[in-house]
Amino acid sequence: METSTVNQSLNKKTVQAPPVKELPQVFYKDIILEIKHLGVSVEGKEILKDFSLTLKSGEIHIIMGPNGSGKSTLCNALMGHPKYQVTGGEALLNGINILELKPDKRAQAGMFLAFQYPREIPGITFGNFLRHAVNAVQKANNPEAKPYGPAQFVPIVQKQFEVVKMNRQFIGRSVNEGFSGGEKKRAEIIQMSTLQPKIAMLDEIDSGLDIDALKIVAEGIQNVFDRTNMGVLLITHYQRVLNYLKPHFVHIMVDGKIVKSGGQELATELEKNGYEEYAPSQSGMRK
Ligand code: ADP
Ligand code: MG
Known about the structure:
This protein is an alpha/beta fold. It has helices at 3-14, 71-79, 103-108, 126-141, 150-163, 181-195, 211-228, 264-273, and strands at residues 32-42, 45-56, 60-64, 84-93, 96-97, 111-114, 121-125, 174-175, 199-203, 231-235, 249-254, 257-262. It has 8 helices and 12 strands. Helix 5 packs across helix 6 and helix 6 packs parallel to helix 7.
């Protein structure tokens, strides 16, 4: 061995790499979200009426329904968007009514929403945004938890980027600013992958994606689901996402209510026949 090689291997032994921090490993069991008789209005207009649905860890539920049936309203109300007024009912996450919690407390309790229209946050890098979000959630659940520092967080966030094959340069860019539609949707999955929610709602995550991006996003969801066993509520117009994600339940939502529930065959049937049978007045063009 040449001297320089010997020195190199000696150096390798003496220089201790800092311990690599990982995200805490979670695998949820016995998580249950019970939405009971939920009523929601927006600007005085009643959108959800007596909406009920139970969702557990390890389950993927799909909600399909015509435009304007209240799918996004459901997600926004569950996350505590101030525009969505809860007029009745409850949403119990393992017995705790999340509707009584402030939005940040709902996120800390394990609720997550991937937005239909993700917002841009100029001036905050995506990496820092993720780090602060995960630190806040971890601290809420364990006051002793040490927050991730920027350098420590780099390998962690890089791993999450791999989940949706996103270029790492986005870590240093402002949140969603100048991202394409597909990149915004991937960024939502990265957030989910980092936060490891108990219940993840994905509102039209598949809209506007080409077939390759759709596959990557769907596989990203599957990856986080397999890893964490979270409960998933996926909202979509299209059956094509079901080529990649296998739901346990499919629900049809019309006019603020679930009108039919079933398995994957229900989605296939919808693809063929549309919503006509369930919503004669709502299918096709809306006035
Ligand atoms: P979906 O997601 O199923 O297409 P939405 O929940 O977005 O349906 O909308 C349901 C109804 O609520 C629509 O009539 C829509 O116009 C109304 N609505 C939803 N959000 C708002 C809002 N922020 N301001 C005013 N009206 C809204
Ligand atoms: Mg919507």
